[in-house]
Amino acid sequence: MLLSMLPFLLLLLCLSPSLPFLLPPPPSPALLAPPLSANIFKFLSDKTSEGLTQLTTIASAVASGNATAGLASVKEYVDQENEILRARVQNIFPRPELDLVEELRKTRPASPEAVEAACGTLKTLLLRSDVGTAASDLVAARMSKSLLPLLEDGPLKYSDLLAAAKVHLLATLAPPPRPPPAADCVPVYLLMGANGMGKTTTIGKLAHRLRKTAADLGNPDFKVLMCAADTYRAGAVAQLQVWAERAGADIVGPADVLLGLGREATAEACAAVKPGTVVYKALDRAEEGGYDVLLVDTSGRLSTNTGLTKELAKIYDIIEKRLGGPPLETTLVLDASQGSSAVTSSATWGKSLPITSLALTKLDGSSAGGSCVGVAASCGIPVAFVGVGEGVDDLREFDAGVFVDSLLDVREAERAEVNARVEVLRTALLAEREKEEEEAREAASNDL
């Protein structure tokens, strides 16, 4: 393929002296301010020149019979440029809500009214970060209750405000108690979500992460099986197959069902296979093949799509009956920039089956991802993983402390003091809860 492209590449190189003039002229100063128009034209010209340099790299590599090295060099260049461009875009479009943080840094509340005002400002910060009204109200109210007693020691510091916000955000994000997983059976991850959320990509990254973690712990033979139960979307099985190859996992899809029945696996026949049938086949393969984990991909759907949601509930029931208990994880994949609608969709899905965790994708952009706090507060669903890029290694376990620090813009120089105050407030909070529980027990005893 590269050899067939060589004449085209060489033609572009020959045209390189005149190619910049094929670009449109700079916009008129009447339309754009002169500095902006000049910068735009310079950017386009620079990128044209840089692009020609990379084409030269590829052409030279092909000519010397080392196309792989040439492509690797260009890929490295593109990756670096993408990182630079992403950083520039984030600088151009900063999070405006962080202006509120700078405002709070200058305050030292010394009265109940000032504390309430500071909590109101932090509530606005949370609202602008997509945390949602209910969760923001809850955190702000709990902050105020924790901060007011501290006024006895004098005006509050900024670290007190941040610590109060952090301790209650962490409490909101803490995972609720979970029943133990089904014993003596293959652990199953069931992933669900709307189209475009990054569900299939997350499965591929998760498979890679599980295998890498197992290898680091001394089990290089850890076996992952993927189940392509998205039989509705054209190309979904092929997309998952690509990720299976990247992650070193095996895959079961509609074609395996048909071939097992002695039927021809045509595209039309594969599309007619029921998702639940594919899942049942995958469970058979996982048990017979001695796999360590099964990851189930499902068709993308809106939470309001009743038919497809019922199909998802059937898949859950099949897994639960075969395992004798629920899947290890039933994970809802959400886009970090989805905003407050994440709470609505999570609540709707939660009516059909018990969601145990969230995977938050596309957290590498300018989104604060605060919607996961709203989901945790309203639905009791914690975040398990976050996607921070497009690479196979770009899936991380969710670190609530790091996330909250980012949400509140806690600086490195502030972190130690804020965390020390967090421990003080957490101890006081636990003591208060123990007191409330003791009072409740006494009241119940008196009623008897």
Commentary on this structure:
This protein has 448 residues and is of the alpha/beta class. It folds into three domains: 2-92, no CATH class; 98-173, no CATH class; 188-407, Rossmann fold, CATH 3.40.50. The chain contains 17 helices and eight strands. It has helices spanning 2-14, 34-63, 67-92, 98-105, 112-128, 133-147, 158-173, 199-216, 236-247, 254-260, 267-272, 275-288, 306-323, 341-350, 371-379, 400-408, 412-447; strands at residues 188-192, 224-228, 250-252, 293-297, 329-335, 357-361, 383-387, 395-397. An eight-stranded mixed beta sheet has the order 3-2-4-1-5-6-7-8, with helices on both faces. α14 links the parallel β5 (329-335) and β6 (357-361). It is globular, with a radius of gyration of 27 Å. Residues 1-46 and 83-94 have low confidence and may be disordered. It comes from Tetraparma gracilis. Residues 382-395 form the SRP54-type proteins GTP-binding domain. Residues 1-20 form the signal peptide. Keywords: Coiled coil, GTP-binding, Membrane, Nucleotide-binding, Receptor, Signal. This is SRP54-type proteins GTP-binding domain-containing protein.
